[in-house]
Records
---
Amino acid sequence: MGWEDKVRKVVPYTPGEQPKAADVVKLNTNENPYPPSPAVAEAAARIAAETDRLRLYPDPKISDLVNAIADVYGVRRDEVFVGVGSDDVLAMLFMTFFNSDKPILFPDITYSFYDVWADMLRIPYEKVPLDEHFHIRPGDYKRENGGIVIANPNAPTGALLPLTAIEEIVAANPDSVVIVDEAYVDFNGVTALPLLDRYDNLVITQTFSKSRSMAGLRIGYAFGNAPLIKYLNDVKYSFNSYTMSWPAILMGTAEVLDTEHFGDNCRKIVRTRAKTTERLRTLGFCLEDSCSNFVFATHPRVSAKEIFDYLRANNIFVRWFNQDRIREYLRISIGTDADMDRFFAVLTPFLQEKGAL
Ligand SMILES: *Cc1c(COP(=O)(O)O)cnc(C)c1O
């Protein structure tokens, strides 16, 4: 077919499976096992009572949500950008700021969407290998580049780069925009937000999908200096002015203002993560302490694929990446204590049967 020569051909990102069965334990996409704030349900009731408002276009400036985020995080309103999940925010950032002939840089093991966006947008890139412990070496990012993107804590390793190292990278690259993707920062990470005043090339992204229990609503946001956010908005308005629906703005605003419920949820996950880490080590798994809502573990005696397949056959979904360097690892999202009990109730006898305990 002649027209196929003119197609933008891409290899799409593969999202984690969303199994349909009801009784699965879903530990494969880092969703939050707890519901969002009760204020979100109240907002939803208001939406149900006012469906007539759906006739109208939503606020293109997303003011209520932008203002709520700015107030809660103590930044100026012109330093906040909101989009349809941080995936949308990141894609807009790539489009807006990565327009150089020089390659952008990101780790070889990181969020697997970065190379998909770079390929789709024809942005040259280089993957910078993590060290043998899967840690970022800041010195590797001190060379000519078209931009930098770093997830901190990193995915799927859960490793945290200290703020001093982030600052080292941002400071060494005044001529490039450095994106710090903080999708998991609320689970004992360290935000780069304090650096915002000093570096005009820094942009930070966060999401409602993990710590805020709202992956289904699709809300993400970015912090950056006002001129940077202005450039980002210019591209957004040139693409789609009404990115956020009225229900999303209303429910998102309700969630962000309930800081107490949010803090409690995050602390519960961190507690369950500590217990899970210990139990996995008791079963012989090797894993570093994680700063996210998942752990990244390998077993020296049983292959990760084999464990993954067995768990899946028993309705326990975790994530396995068929990728160099991490083929022997499983990424296990932290669920409720009851979820983790079910996970171990399937895993432990399997390892015993394999003679691995
Ligand atoms: C989950 C995730 C995102 C995207 O989340 P959204 O649901 O699009 O907000 C971005 N970056 C990393 C590292 C993630 O793990």
---
Amino acid sequence: MSLPTTNSPDTTLDSLGSAAARATLRAHPSRGYVQIEPPVEPMPRLSKELGGAVELFVKRDDLLPLAGGGSKTRKLDYLVQQALDSGADTLVTCGAVQSNHCRLTASAAAREGLGCHLVLEERVAGSYSPEAGGNNYVFGLLGAKTQVVPLGGVDAAVAALMEELKAAGATPYYIPGGGSNALGALGYARAAISVVEEARKAGRPFDAVVLCSGSGGTHAGMLTGMRACGDQTKVYGVSVRFDAAKQKSRIEAQYKECAKLFGNEAPEEDVVIIDSQVGPGYSLPTPEMRSAVEAFAKLEGILLDPVYTGKGAAGLLQLVREGAFQPGARVLFLHTGGAPSLFHYQPVPE
Ligand SMILES: *Cc1c(COP(=O)(O)O)cnc(C)c1O
């Protein structure tokens, strides 16, 4: 399939959202990686296992295009277009040692014929191994160059790398960690508008949305898109790294920036964070994550990942068990991908 060229009319937008929301989306060209919306699927066996009072659904963003799929494809759809429009020949980004975002950035770079440099942050001391499988194996396979820095070493390494590339005559474009700035989050605003519209067309809106809250573009973008089409559904962000207070302020800042693109406010009370699934820290396993990964696999045939969606789904199960949702509620879990790292961590059985 040939991708649309820069600034070609994006026909997938024709029926999306209000005229004002469409105008905002049109003002920011995307590369066209997301031509077909992944399905929203019911999860009847998991719903039944949890008592049957709540109807659970999953948005299959793990099935998005680019190598291995996942949420970052939606952000890269906008970011890579901007990189190409600015004449870049090299993508530079950063992430953890099993970063899904780095995998997908490397995949986009390969597809566009761009160079790709990844700065990998060893957030857990001793967690990096050059021989590691999962995403680490795929970085090199996709042609990306990698360097590893200790926790907190990213900014200095990226600055040095950008200078080095420029000195060598390259034109690098920097994509922030997780692709999380207002432009990247726009990919999720668009996704949210599409989810809301589809549910409205079917006459069955959702009563709550549960997603992982990491670098924040997903959470901020979903809130922006839902509110931009007048949907006030509560969004629960399950933190995978920081405590609730810190994560809330990180999301509020990004939500403001993204909502501004639509000319909208970003009410602080929209940002709801659950931090009970972080456990000992980012990427470190918890019993709740393990049992959520097992439940999705055995009951619905869906692979989660141990770092993000396993903990996000553990948050979903916790909310259902605690009675956070009314009987009969329709709850949507956003599957943001990540399964390739499952083949490295193998969290189940304990
Ligand atoms: C990056 C990522 C997230 C978190 O999304 P953010 O926009 O960074 O908050 C969730 N799930 C998976 C699989 C990811 O790779």
